[in-house]
Automatic annotation (TrEMBL):
<keyword id="KW-1133">Transmembrane helix</keyword>
<feature type="transmembrane region" description="Helical">
    <location>
        <begin position="81"/>
        <end position="102"/>
    </location>
</feature>
<keyword id="KW-0325">Glycoprotein</keyword>
<keyword id="KW-0472">Membrane</keyword>
<feature type="transmembrane region" description="Helical">
    <location>
        <begin position="48"/>
        <end position="69"/>
    </location>
</feature>
<keyword id="KW-1015">Disulfide bond</keyword>
<keyword id="KW-0675">Receptor</keyword>
<feature type="transmembrane region" description="Helical">
    <location>
        <begin position="122"/>
        <end position="143"/>
    </location>
</feature>
<feature type="transmembrane region" description="Helical">
    <location>
        <begin position="211"/>
        <end position="234"/>
    </location>
</feature>
<feature type="domain" description="G-protein coupled receptors family 1 profile">
    <location>
        <begin position="61"/>
        <end position="327"/>
    </location>
</feature>
<keyword id="KW-0297">G-protein coupled receptor</keyword>
<keyword id="KW-0597">Phosphoprotein</keyword>
<dbReference type="InterPro" id="IPR000276">
    <property type="entry name" value="GPCR_Rhodpsn"/>
</dbReference>
<dbReference type="Pfam" id="PF00001">
    <property type="entry name" value="7tm_1"/>
</dbReference>
<dbReference type="GO" id="GO:0005886">
    <property type="term" value="C:plasma membrane"/>
</dbReference>
<feature type="transmembrane region" description="Helical">
    <location>
        <begin position="311"/>
        <end position="330"/>
    </location>
</feature>
<feature type="transmembrane region" description="Helical">
    <location>
        <begin position="273"/>
        <end position="296"/>
    </location>
</feature>
Amino acid sequence: MKSLVIQEMQEYYYQIQIPNITVGSNERQSNESTTALSSSTKTSNYKIAFPIGLFIAGALGNILALIVLARARKEHQRSIFYRLVGGLAGTDIIGILATSPVAISVYFNDLHWEGGQRLCDYFSFLMIFSGFATVFIVSAMALERYLAICHPYFYNTRAYPMLAFWILLAIWIISFVIATFPLFGFGHNTIQHPGNWCFFDSHSTDLIDQIFAYFYAVIGLAMVLFTIICNLLAMISLMHSTGTLQTQNNYLMRMCSTHSTNRKRREQSLQMLLLLFGIVIIFAVCWAPLMIRVIINQTRWLPINKEADLLGIRLACFNQVLDPWVYILFRKEIVMRVLDCVRKHIYCRSCRQDSETNITQPQLTHL
């Protein structure tokens, strides 16, 4: 009888304790899941902030660049260079407006791609088209400045304002054709890590896919090298024409003289070259890593690194954001003000040196 009472008391005790243990365990699991959810939410918010920020900065910058160009159209209406700048801004804004909303919507959908292969082909087509168009336009700008500065007679006898339109049209057609290659089996498009964008498959071992990947990377790197060479040659030629590579006194006289008939033209060429130099530096830094990643993926020099691929495409997209801001910062009014300040500083320095020389010369003669 006593043992029966003890057994009933133990069962009653366990019935009381087990729910408490269960409740405590559930509370801990709930707290852990809440913490994990909060952490994942913060990570998701951080990741989605990049495409949203890229979209806003790129759209705003390119719209402002087009407005600045439109306001100065009377001054630049005969300039091939600035028409190419306008074409670059237009190409960049089309690429941003057509692709960024897709990437943002996929982020909001927890990185689930709902559009299927057709949306993937659309996204990849626009990425390849806008990428190659940007590459070719920057290369055309570099070639235009090289010819204008290094071969002025050839340039002036053959250049006319409508030439910029035909150059842009040819670039857009060529870029359009290249972007359609994966749609017809020369390469193929696939969803890329982390799942919110599409591009051609740079990891494929299929021969046709490899040929297209090498074609894309080699053309891109060749254009980067071409623009750098053209820019350096134009800069060296401009430095020669202004006397920078000659004696310092001769340079000061050329820069400080207000009666030089070619000073204004040299300043305009320098302003365009500084603008192009900024665009080329950003262009090389942003595009070269993507081309290099494609070659690394094909040659298998390094293990597959999807995060590095993602960084490469993000840098390439960032180029479309930075281009218009470079133009806004390097527009003629700002560059001319900087040159005026530099000229005044150099002139004051030269006058000070001349006055010191005039003071010391009589003393030496007296001695």
